[in-house]
Amino acid sequence: MAWYNYLIIGLSLLSIFMVVWVIRQHKKSEKLEQLLKHTTKKLERLQVHFGRFTPEEVIEHLTESGGGYQANMRTVTVLFADLKGFTKMCNEMDPQQVVTILNGYFRSMSNALSVHHGQVTELMGDGLLALFGALRPNPWQVQDAVAGALAMRNALAEYNEELKEKGFPELAFGIGIHQGRVLAGVMGNFELSKFGVVGDTINIAARIESLTRVHNCDLLITEEVRSALDDRFDLKEMPALPVKGVQKPVVTYQVQGIHHSWSA
User: Fold this and answer.
1) How far apart are CA 141 and CA 136, in angstroms?
2) I need a labelling partner for 101 at 20 to 30 A (CA). Which of 10, 168, 172, 206 fits?
């Protein structure tokens, strides 16, 4: 019967080995699951942070095209917005309060623009650059840009109510919109790259924004934009003024709103 005892011992050792193996595999499975969860969370955080600096449509395009984005010349509508009197506010308020106010402002403006197919591509101090029709052709880009600017006006009024309740000073901005040809594409190097545009159109939009201080208004567009607009927008022609980089004085139009016949 010695063989029977050896068999029992052998089966017992095999059973112990199997139990130990199962426990080890279970632990490995738990570690693998934890690793996968941790990696997934890191990827989600990376996507969120990356999305803050690059328009979502660019990320999708780069993913679909294997990382390439063909730079080309295209007609784009550029919106440039800048806060008025913000430098003085920075000098008079606590730095953290200034950052909090500015972050809330950018969040509110970006949300308003995204509804109208605008991509915020630059945040420069208290300035904001948004593009319409840069990522792909958009035959309604001019309508979208002006409608987006009016949405920003409404969003700023709502945000100012929040600031007032918290005892913070209200904000005021100027917006300039211009349309023209630009070079659009992903630019930079291996360490740092972004989607952007290059051309005089951006400079002119910024200089049109500066004219809002001269004309004492918050939203100006150029003739190139006005000529492509439909008649829903209520415009007021402003006196021609010289603009750096443009040979002749530039006629701009104040956007007062949308005609009641369209908004009713």
Assistant:
1) 10
2) 206
